[in-house]
Request: fold
Amino acid sequence: MAEAQPFLPYGRQQIDEDDIAAVARVLRSDWLTGGPAVDAFEAEFARIVAAPFAVACANGTAGLHLAALAARLGTGASAVVPAVTFLATANCLRYVGAEVVFADVDPASGLLTPETFEAALARARKQGAAPVKAVLPVHLGGQTCDLVAIAEIARREGAIVIEDACHAIGTSGVGPGAESEPVGACRNSAMAVFSFHPVKTVTSGEGGMVTTRDAELAARLRRLRSHGMTREADLFEIEAQGFGADGSPNPWYYEMAEMGFNYRLPDINCALGLSQLAKLPRFAERRRRLAARYDSLLARLAPVLRPVLRSQWCDPVLHLYAVLIDFAAAGISRGALMRALAARGIGSQVHYIPVHRQPYYRERYGTLALPGADAYYERCLSLPFFPAMTEADQDRVVEALDSILAGRA
Reply:
């Protein structure tokens, strides 16, 4: 009897012995949280993405929440979010009391475009929505939006740009004709938010990072991730409590000028993240090779199955390998295909159910017609894709797809 093949998930972390050793060193040190590994992780990430400031936090969702807080979004403001994204991109705005204006996306790539951004702004004005103070373009799957054009529209509207770059660690290129630069450099945005969840290109277990070029925003992000608290004497507002009779700051004293959160990232996680960052070039190259090989192998399944449209202006490090399938032409439902793949030990996933379809947002904003988002959602499927995959693993995925779809189209 043939031995069962290992299950292939849609994504998986790659942890090596040096990663384990890095975490063990922290566990043996005096600092498990709030220590030097945090500073080292932030400094190395800032260097890699060419940003002056990087602020580590508990996860990508916490990063988006901190960015919304740092941007002073709140009640009486709204922000544009593409409908095809994870829940957190929209939810971070509701956390601070701001409203969400959902934008349509390109049905072939799932990305926010300048045109769909403009259409969302026009709909917001027509419906009398709160003033749009921000836009959160999502670099879906690791591909960048046309950030240059989106930023120009945002400037015209008096809105800031907060990049949801949770999928785009290692990607470079932000728009047609723009000078290539790493995502996170923030030359066309106020902040960029990253995630280090285990299925991302590098992991810290859980974890997030917010990058910016603005020193004031960076300082505010740091305060907000730690209860809104400061121990900096020059920021004390109550002198009688903060300073002794000789004018020196009291060594125990701290102040909370505004509400913050405990969104710190422990040294344990930062040590893992720092170790993983050293492997980013290797992981990125492996992902590029796997993506190119998938492109070639899957060509025979066209036109029923095609890879998601690639942006011509970016050099992506794909977090997801997503395809678009004409399920009607294939004569099989997505659910049936996913179950058939799972029966062969192959995982798959849908990224994402458009957020405007969620019950909470339908109740709040009503039913929206976003045909691009709906068309993308109805066809998308993410296939197994992670650096430790072998060519044999890829062959197995493609052969399974070919077998299941054969004779149905």
Notes: The two ends are 33 Å apart (CA to CA). Residues 17-277 form a domain with the Aspartate Aminotransferase; domain 2 fold (CATH 3.40.640.10). The mean pLDDT is 96. The first helix runs from residue 17 to 27.
